[in-house]
Amino acid sequence: xxxxxxxKEIDNNASVCIGCGHSVTxxxxxxxxxxxxxxxxxxxxIPVVGFILWCVWTxxxxxxxxxxxxxxxxxxxxxxxxxxxxxxxxxxxxxxxxNYSFY
Length: 103
Ligand SMILES: [Zn+2]
What we know:
By secondary structure, the chain is an all-alpha fold. It is built from four helices and no strands. The protein has two domains: 1-30; 35-102.
């Protein structure tokens, strides 16, 4: 395997990197959980993927799982609300257009 800190090739069973001295076993055994905004956007644009990731990660990496879930929820809300807003806007514009054409 390679050290995640310096990239030096080290023994698979090594607990400390011989190159930089960082502990490496902890990084390999515990999944890294971070609240990266990228997972939110992934869930937002592809809600199905967001829900799947939430199901998969909710036990191991809850912060990341929650991020993907919220992205998916907002993605679904946006996919319902945005067309309604566009529809209302279109109706208003047609209505205004019709009014102007009469004068
Ligand atoms: Zn290293």
